[in-house]
């Protein structure tokens, strides 16, 4: 056996034959390709048709950038995109602040209350959006008209609050998952060195959680961009977000500029997710830890 291994190790020795793949490996490989096509083929179709020069999305007339150029000359599209971006930014800020505080509290003050709170967050996460929308509309009308808090009559405020509900739960999961694996001895050492609680929170706890906070902010931003059902209920005249604009455009037929804006938002989402992974990677997380943090596991 030793002589055989020595012969194989010689420079002139013939390479060893690769083991033949079993039929099950081939079948699983083909099945994986089919699943990926099933998931991403509709997105690929939208991206391709965003370069359609025709008047309707379903009819291909030729390749060009006319659809992207029409975005710059149509005020309705510009206003819808602007409302969506502003709403997503404000909702992401709200969700990041509330979710970060909730995640830190769950990680640093464990107890039975944490499981009850996690259950409430899970309830928020799995509740159908139509239920949230039906509940939010009369609640905001009550606050804006009956109570007299006029800010809840503003469309941007309504959309921001409605979009931040689900995003807050996501940020809470992410921040808690980050801090649960971090040792609390640094915070105890800071307290032993006579640092105030606020200083310890700002310079130690928040610093440890910052990668997850940034990841949660970016994810909250992307989640808020496509909050269609809630937005359709709580919007007011003059503040129509992009998803609701697309729904209304279905009545007259989808046009290539809708696919063009969708492609741009898809690119923004992919860039945000890439930044999330980059932030966590620079913080020293492995691929498994990045996936765990992004899913709140």
Structural key phrases:
single chain; 297 residues; mainly alpha; globular; cell inner membrane; MetI-like_sf
Describe the structure.
The protein is mainly α and 297 residues long. The protein has 13 helices and no strands. It is globular, with a radius of gyration of 25 Å.
Summarize this entry quickly.
By secondary structure, the chain is mainly alpha-helical. Helix content is 75%, strand content 0%. It is a multi-pass membrane protein.
- Binned, the helix content reads over 70%
Low-confidence stretches: none
Distance between the termini: 48 Å
Output the radius of gyration.
Answer: 25 Å
Instruction: Note the main sheet.
Output: none
Mean pLDDT: 80
Shape: globular
Order of helices and strands: HHHHHHHHHHHHH
* Count of alpha/pi helices: 13
Percent range for β-strand residues: under 5%
The overall strand count is 0
Describe the secondary structure blueprint for this structure.
Layout: H1 2-9, H2 23-49, H3 66-71, H4 75-108, H5 112-126, H6 129-146, H7 155-180, H8 185-192, H9 197-225, H10 228-234, H11 242-249, H12 256-282, H13 287-295
Helix pairs in contact: 4-7, 4-9, 4-11, 5-7, 6-10, 7-9, 7-13, 8-9, 9-12, 12-13
Main location: membrane
Protein name: Spermidine/putrescine transport system permease protein PotC
Domain ABC transmembrane type-1: 81-279
């Amino acid at each position: 056996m030793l002589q055989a291994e020595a012969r194989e190790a010689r420079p002139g020795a013939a390479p060893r034959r690769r083991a033949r793949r079993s039929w099950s490996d081939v079948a699983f490989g083909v099945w994986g390709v089919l699943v990926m096509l099933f998931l991403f083929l509709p997105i690929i179709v939208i991206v391709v048709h965003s370069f359609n020069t025709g008047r309707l999305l379903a009819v291909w007339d030729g390749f060009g950038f006319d659809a992207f150029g029409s975005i710059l000359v149509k005020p309705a599209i510009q206003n819808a995109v602007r409302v969506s971006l502003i709403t997503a930014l404000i909702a992401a800020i709200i969700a990041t602040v509330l979710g970060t505080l909730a995640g830190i509290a769950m990680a640093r003050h464990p107890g039975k209350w944490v499981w009850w709170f996690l259950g409430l967050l899970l309830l928020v996460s799995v509740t159908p959006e139509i239920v949230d929308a039906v509940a939010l509309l009369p609640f905001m009308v009550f606050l804006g008209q009956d109570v007299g808090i006029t800010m809840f009559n503003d469309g941007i405020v309504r959309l921001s609050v409605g979009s931040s509900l689900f995003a807050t739960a996501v940020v809470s999961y992410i921040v808690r998952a980050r801090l649960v694996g971090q040792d609390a001895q640094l915070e105890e050492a800071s307290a032993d060195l006579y640092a105030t609680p606020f200083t310890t929170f700002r310079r130690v706890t928040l610093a440890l959680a910052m990668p997850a906070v940034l990841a949660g902010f970016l994810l909250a931003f992307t989640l808020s961009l496509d909050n269609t059902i809630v937005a359709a209920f709580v919007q007011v005249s003059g503040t129509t977000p992009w998803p609701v604009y697309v729904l209304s455009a279905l009545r007259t037929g989808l046009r290539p500029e809708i696919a063009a804006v969708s492609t741009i938002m898809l690119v923004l989402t992919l860039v945000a997710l890439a930044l999330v992974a980059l932030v966590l990677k620079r913080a020293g997380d492995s691929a498994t830890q990045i996936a765990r943090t992004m899913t709140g596991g």
